[in-house]
Q: What sequence folds into this?
């Protein structure tokens, strides 16, 4: 599974980071970004991070919990 | 617990259903919703969903098949028999439960003078939003009654489409009971600069027009011309179906700090319908925002599975209007001391703090999402504060 975020719709609520800190992080600009191997990737819907094994359900939950609806999953 | 029913299919209800499964509940989960649609997000309805052609798919809340949740749409709860542990729905069926999550949300308040008049809209459901954006295509003159968050967001969206907009608010300013007059005044200026007329302090007396609305007559006799009227004067918790159930109802389903309905070990409540004791602030609260609904839905589900952790969040919400993004965390209100600590109101880029007896209890950030992150964290890290004590 891969995951990306469309930052233009991000509300900065931080729910994703609270749910799966291994995959999501709020950066200095107050918006959420996806992480791969612990490092934030550039923003944008096309910038997808590979989800570590075992975290798929949590990442799917975070996508549903996201107030902006801006977390995208690709199987 | 064998069978758990979740009543309500929005943010709180879907979060509860998901959480039940994620936390090992193996019995059946039935989710009933009076909507004809599968679950969807409400926050976009007053924002971008009003301006594009997106459908249900664009705002759907996914309930994956592997969670095996029995979702029953167009099914309205009409009565709860807590003695026999049965939920009665509008088909007449009485569904037995071992545990029940109440997440029926809230209903929009109507203005009696305008109720049922063609051309008068409210905005709560996706059908409301589709009706409204269809009406917008005819380039109507728009009157928005109610200057709360929904009213101001819809006014900004309509004006953003180039429509003629008048915003009518009975109070003397915007947000007087929520974020307070200084921020309300800043937001009012923003709307006026974009060409929206605002009328403060005058209630609506009646609707003008026979077959459909042509305008509003206000209490001072003045007339606001309008082809459509959008009423956004707040909501009431949807508890009517619980009357006679024995549950304690007081502007919501009254719950303890674990989201359990008072006096019950098998019924919890979450989201707009729940009034629970938030131990962080030592008072009961009812929060009508997305994040709270999701988090409380999860807490209410865990409570049914035996987790008695208190639900003590720092509430969060945001609003987008034109190029203004306001993010708010914690407690706000006109009774608190408000101070802008960075930036300034006229530039619409600032952060402010709400204090109670000198203790910060809330923060607001305008177009400053980076600063908001750290300020919000500092609130979350603060030990609980007993509001009643602090007021004394």
A:
């Amino acid at each position: 599974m891969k995951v990306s975020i469309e930052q233009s719709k991000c509300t900065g609520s931080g729910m994703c980071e609270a749910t799966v800190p291994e995959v999501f992080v709020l950066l200095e600009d107050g918006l959420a970004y996806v992480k791969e191997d612990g490092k934030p990737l550039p923003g944008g819907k096309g910038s997808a991070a590979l989800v570590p094994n075992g975290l798929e359900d949590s990442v799917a939950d975070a996508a549903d919990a996201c107030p902006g609806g801006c977390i995208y999953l690709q199987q | 617990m064998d069978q758990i029913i979740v009543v309500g299919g929005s943010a709180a209800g879907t979060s509860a259903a998901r959480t039940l499964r994620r936390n090992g509940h193996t019995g059946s989960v039935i989710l009933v919703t009076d909507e004809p649609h599968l679950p969807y997000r409400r926050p976009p309805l007053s924002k971008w969903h009003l301006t594009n052609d997106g459908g249900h798919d664009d705002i759907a809340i996914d309930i994956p098949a592997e969670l095996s949740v029995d979702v029953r749409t167009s099914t309205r709860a009409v009565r709860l028999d807590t003695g026999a542990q049965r939920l009665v729905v509008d088909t007449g069926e009485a569904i037995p439960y071992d545990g029940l999550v109440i997440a029926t949300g809230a209903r929009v308040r109507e203005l009696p003078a305008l109720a049922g008049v063609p051309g008068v809209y409210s905005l709560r459901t996706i059908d409301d939003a589709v009706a409204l954006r269809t009406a917008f295509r005819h380039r109507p003159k728009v009157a928005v009654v109610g200057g709360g968050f929904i009213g101001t967001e819809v006014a900004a969206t309509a004006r953003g489409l180039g429509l003629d907009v008048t915003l009518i608010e009975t109070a003397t300013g915007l947000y007087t009971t929520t974020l307070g007059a200084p921020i309300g005044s800043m937001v009012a200026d923003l709307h006026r600069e974009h060409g929206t007329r605002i009328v403060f302090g005058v209630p609506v007396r009646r609707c003008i027009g026979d077959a459909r609305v042509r305008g509003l007559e206000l209490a001072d006799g003045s007339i606001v011309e309008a082809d459509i009227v959008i009423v956004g004067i707040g909501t009431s918790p949807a508890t009517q179906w619980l009357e006679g159930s024995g549950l304690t109802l007081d502007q919501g389903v009254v719950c303890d700090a674990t989201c359990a309905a008072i006096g019950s070990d098998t019924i919890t409540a979450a989201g707009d319908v729940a009034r629970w004791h938030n131990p962080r602030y030592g008072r009961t609260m009812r929060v009508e925002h997305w994040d709270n609904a999701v988090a409380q839905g999860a807490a209410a589900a865990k409570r049914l599975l035996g987790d008695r952790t208190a639900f003590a969040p720092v509430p969060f919400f945001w609003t987008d209007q034109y190029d203004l993004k306001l993010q708010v965390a914690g407690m706000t209100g006109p009774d608190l001391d408000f101070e802008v600590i960075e930036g300034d109101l006229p530039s619409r880029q600032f952060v402010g703090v709400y204090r109670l007896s000198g203790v910060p209890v809330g923060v607001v950030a305008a177009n400053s999402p980076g600063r908001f992150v750290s300020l919000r964290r500092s609130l979350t890290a603060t030990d609980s504060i007993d509001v009643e004590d602090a007021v004394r």
About this structure: Residues 319 and 326 of chain B are 5 Å apart (CA to CA). Chain B has eight helices and 26 strands. Helices of chain B lie at 11-22, 56-59, 126-136, 149-160, 181-193, 290-304, 369-381, 387-391. The mean pLDDT of chain B is 94.
